[in-house]
């Protein structure tokens, strides 16, 4: 179907060639008030439709520890028992989300803070793995995001700010990796918009040498990704981030970039920014 077609009488019209940025910020940026301020100012300065997704794993770990709850991560995901779910609900859905929304409002951006349960925007299923009980952790199914619902919000002038919480439709909140939420939103909304997915974190992008900010790799395709993994140049949190990024690229997202939150302003100036992913060289 052509992107300008109307889907049905009651649904929104597909958004021709409008651009949409889906930008995710990680815990290290959120944890640093100066970096967060700069990032949000640049985010507000970007033209066009925007959605912000935030993590906050670092803050959740700190606050859980202050409350005497030990943080346990397996394969980059937090084991989320009922006590931990309470903490992440307060930290992601409350503390971090509302602070970000208030700061964006200060910059004149009409941000609206959301979990996946609000507006039934993002449903997930409890993660089931035979060997590990992840507890209240959600995986997002294909088709569990209705892009038209989110599009209505954007068209009404709001900037959605999603935290790392989803729901199962049966009354249960689920803790869901923020990189995965950003990728799933980008894939879903690419049916309506020319979507660019950007992962912002504290480094310049994917680095050849993690300790050398000058060793930025400008472009990675799927073959190079396999090589970098085999050489252990890419590891830990970067692995799920890149897996999510390549899923997005192969499912219709126009561009995926991984870069430093401080450099986001370069995008507006059309200057090179971060590491760009591509399917083939
Ligand atoms: N080649 C690499 N280049 C840059 N970062 C890397 C690389 N390999 C592993 N990493 C690690 O990945 C981390 C980013 O993943 P993560 O902590 O999950 O991000 P976020 O802050 O978005 O949650 C970096 O802080 C870094 O420690
Ligand atoms: C299930 C799961 O692991 N959820 C993540 C959600 C937050 C997140 O993704 O935060 P960062 O992007 O800052 O890492 C967690 O609780 O750590």
Fold and architecture overview:
The chain is an alpha/beta fold and 281 residues long. It has one domain (19-204, 238-268): 3-Layer(aba) Sandwich (Carbamate kinase), CATH 3.40.1160. The chain has nine helices and 14 strands. The chain has helices at residues 27-30, 33-45, 57-66, 82-106, 147-155, 178-189, 222-230, 238-250, 265-268; strands at 19-25, 49-54, 73-74, 77-78, 111-114, 125-126, 138-139, 159-162, 165-167, 173-175, 194-201, 219-220, 255-260, 275-277. It has an eight-stranded mixed beta sheet with strand order 5-8-2-1-11-13-14-12, with helices on both faces. A hairpin with a 5-residue loop joins strand 9 and strand 10. The longest helix has 25 residues, at 82-106. The protein is globular and about 45 Å long.
